[in-house]
């Protein structure tokens, strides 16, 4: 267990904001995590659990303790016919896990290539891209109670996955530290390549296989999304709004070019990036905070932005979309400030 006091957070959030935390604890094993939760040493409330900080916007110094799980290890737990169960520690870099599964010839995660962050946080967030969500493959999640250090396993249903959400972000938020995630993958070649420009990009690479699907997704993401190691950002800042089919039909009459994605018989998902772009925000900057020139869904730090600047820009964008489309955008990024979160 590594404990740091009054530590700068530049390397613990992908916006590269230079706030500090009173205390940051890095746990490398479940035993260390249990000892921490049982308060075998002194630490300061409140407690914030992070992965790589790729879905967080700090707006102030954090007056509490940040816990970062660094539990590693990827292994095949069971193989039966075409089904293969794989588990990974919460601290495993998400894209390293995807790469590992592709190299093993296992289907299920390839469309989620190059998404930043750690495996534990990916499960908490229910990450998704190119027609795939992580919930489709998760079998169970092992966690530790932040109250008493007891171990609890959540099966897939108990995780209550929703759009960019899970029980760990809602009713059980802050109550459990995810330590390991189990995935049900497959040897069968059942690919999802008809989302966006994935098929077109694969055709440039050659045959349809796992390696080319992964590379196609990587190419697409690199072409339109900024590298957080170069430009501070947290990926998609807003969720794609879901409206009723009736509401979507009314909007389509007013804005014929609006992309719509039917979710079921009653709900339709809209493209938040398109809405933001129609409001004139794509490529614009306010002070040191800006909207990416290739993807309006991504807010960026031009180098010296404060968390407040980025937050204020996000509020301006929300107001513009509300005024033009009467749609309330919801932030995907969690804002951490004086009152902990908002």
Question: What are the defining features of this structure?
Answer:
342 residues, 20 strands, 8 helices, five-stranded antiparallel β-sheet, 3 domains, four-stranded mixed β-sheet, Uridine Diphospho-n-acetylenolpyruvylglucosamine Reductase, domain 3, alpha+beta, Uridine Diphospho-n-acetylenolpyruvylglucosamine Reductase, domain 2, Uridine Diphospho-n-acetylenolpyruvylglucosamine Reductase, domain 1
CATH class of the largest domain: Alpha Beta
- Named CATH architecture of the largest domain: 2-Layer Sandwich
Distance between the ends: 30 Å
Chain-averaged pLDDT: 94
Q: Characterize the main sheet.
A: 5 strands, antiparallel
**Order of strands across the widest beta sheet?**
6-7-12-10-11
Main structural class: alpha+beta
Q: Estimate percent helicity.
A: 10-25%
The figure for the number of domains is 3
Percent strand: 25-35%
Oligomer: single chain
Low-confidence spans: none
Order of helices and strands: EEHEEEEEHHEEEEEHHEEHEEHEEEHE
Count of DSSP H/I helices: 8
Verbal overview:
- The protein is of the alpha+beta class.
- Helix content is 25%, strand content 29%.
- It has 3 domains: 2-69, 2-Layer Sandwich (Uridine Diphospho-n-acetylenolpyruvylglucosamine Reductase, domain 2), CATH 3.30.43.10; 74-223, 2-Layer Sandwich (Uridine Diphospho-n-acetylenolpyruvylglucosamine Reductase, domain 3), CATH 3.30.465; 227-336, UDP-N-acetylenolpyruvoylglucosamine reductase, C-terminal domain (Uridine Diphospho-n-acetylenolpyruvylglucosamine Reductase, domain 1).
- The strands form 6 sheets. A 5-stranded antiparallel sheet has the order 6-7-12-10-11. A 4-stranded mixed sheet has the order 1-2-5-3. Strands 13-19-18-17 form a 4-stranded antiparallel sheet, with helices on one face.
- Helix 4 (198-205) crosses helix 5.
- The radius of gyration is 20 Å and the shape is globular.
- The two termini are 30 Å apart.
- The mean pLDDT is 94.
């Amino acid at each position: 267990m590594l404990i740091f006091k009054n530590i700068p957070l530049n390397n613990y959030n992908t916006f590269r904001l230079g706030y500090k935390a009173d205390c940051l604890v890095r746990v490398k094993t479940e035993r260390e995590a249990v000892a921490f939760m049982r308060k075998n040493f002194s630490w300061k409330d409140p407690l914030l659990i992070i992965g790589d900080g790729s879905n967080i916007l700090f707006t102030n110094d954090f007056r509490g303790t940040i816990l970062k799980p660094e539990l590693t290890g990827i292994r095949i737990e069971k193989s039966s016919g075409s089904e293969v169960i794989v588990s990974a520690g919460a601290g495993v870099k998400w894209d390293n896990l995807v790469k590992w599964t592709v190299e093993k010839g296992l289907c299920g995660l390839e469309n989620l290539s190059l998404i930043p962050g750690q495996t534990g946080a990916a499960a908490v967030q229910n990450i998704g891209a190119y027609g795939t969500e992580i919930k489709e493959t998760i079998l169970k999640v092992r966690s530790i109670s932040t109250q008493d250090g007891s171990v609890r396993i959540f099966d897939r249903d108990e995780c209550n996955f929703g759009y960019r959400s899970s029980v760990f972000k809602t009713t059980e938020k802050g109550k459990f530290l995810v330590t390991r995630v189990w995935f049900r993958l497959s040897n069968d070649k059942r690919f999802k390549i008809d989302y966006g420009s994935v098929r077109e990009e694969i055709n440039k690479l050659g045959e349809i296989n796992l390696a080319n699907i992964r590379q196609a997704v990587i190419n697409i993401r690199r072409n339109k999304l900024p590298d957080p190691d170069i430009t501070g950002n947290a990926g998609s800042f807003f969720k794609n709004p879901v409206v009723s089919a009736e509401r979507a039909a009314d909007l389509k009459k007013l804005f014929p070019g609006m992309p719509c994605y039917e979710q079921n018989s009653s709900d339709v998902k809209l493209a938040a990036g398109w809405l933001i772009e129609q409001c004139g925000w794509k490529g614009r900057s306010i002070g040191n905070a800006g909207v990416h020139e290739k993807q309006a869904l991504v807010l960026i730090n031009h180098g010296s932005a404060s968390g407040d600047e980025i937050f204020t820009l996000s509020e301006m964008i929300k107001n513009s979309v509300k005024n033009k489309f009467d749609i309330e955008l919801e932030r995907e990024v969690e804002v951490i400030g004086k009152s902990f979160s908002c």
